[in-house]
Amino acid sequence: MGFLKKLFEKKDCEICGGEIGLLGNTKLADGDMCKDCKAKLSPLFRVEKETMVSDIVQQIAYREENKKALEDFHPDEEFGNSEKLFVDTAAKKFAFAANGDWQETESDILDFSQVTRVETDIEEYTDSTSESHDEDEEYDSTAENETVDVPVSNFHVVLHVDSPYFDTIFIFLSDGDDPSDIGDDSQIAKYRKYEQQMNRIRELFGA
Ligand SMILES: [Zn+2]
Q1: 178 with 95, same domain?
Q2: In this predicted structure, what is the pLDDT of residue 3?
Q3: Both 108 and 16 in a single domain?
Q4: Which residues, by Cβ under 5 Å, contact ligand 1, an ion?
C-alpha cells in the first residue's frame, strides 16, 4: 500500500512549481524537474548526478537571453552534411545544430572567443559493399558474393568551448556522407569539400 502510494505520488517541479507527470520527471541532486523545464535547456547540456536546481534556474535565464541572441544571428557560412556548424563571420558568432536547423534547435549562440581549442581529424575506415555475380559464372567460392572493401573517411571537428553549461561540441562534418579519396570524381570532389571545410574551421577559430 505504502509503496503504491509512493509510486503514484504527484511531484512538483522545483523550478516552475508545476505538477510532474508520471514519466516526466528528471531527478536533480536536490529536487525534481519537469519535462517542460528540461525542454528549455541547451541541447548541448546533459543533466549530471550533481546538477542542482540552482544550476537549472541559472541556465533557463541564460537560455532566455540566448533567444534574443538567436534573433541577431545571421550566419553567412555553414559546414557539415546533416549535423551543421553555422558561422556569422561579421559578428564572430557560431552555433551548432545536430539536426542541421539552428532556428528549430534554438542552438546556443557562442562567441569565437569562447573557443579554447579546435581538434580536427580524418578517420579512415573500411566500408564493405557486397557485389553480386552472375549465377552462370564458373563457380569460384572466392568470387561469389565478393565484398569490396572501400576505404572511406569520416571528417570530424571537436570545438572545446568555455561555457558554464558544456565544454565540447562534436561535429561530424561528413556524417552520413563519408567520401572515399580513391573513388570516382564525385567522391574525390566530396573529399576535397570536407577537407576545405575543416581547414576553414581551423582558420576561423585560429587554431
Ligand atoms: Zn518545471
Answers
A1: yes
A2: 64
A3: no
A4: 13, 15-16, 18, 34, 37
